[in-house]
Amino acid sequence: MNRDTEIALCRRVLDHIAGGTTDQADATYRQPAAHYTSPERLARELDRVFGRVPLAVAHLSELAAPGDFVTRRIGDTPVLVTRDRAGALRAFLNVCRHRGTQVVADPRGRANGFACPYHAWSYGLDGALLAVPHAHGFPGVEPGHSAGLVPLAAAAAGGFAWISLDRATTAIDPAAWLGPLAAELDGLAIPAQHVHDPRVIELAQNWKLAADGALETYHLRATHRTTIYPLFHDNLGLVDVFGPHIRTVFPKRSIAELAGRPSAEWQLRPHANILYFLFPSTILLVEPDHAMVLHTYPVDTDRCRFDAYALLPEPPKSEKALAYWAANLAVFYGAVAEDFARGDSIQAGLRCGANRELLFGRFEHALAAFHRALDAEL
Ligand code: FES
Ligand SMILES: [Fe+2]
Question: pLDDT tens digit string along 319-329?
Answer without folding.
Answer: 999 999 999 99
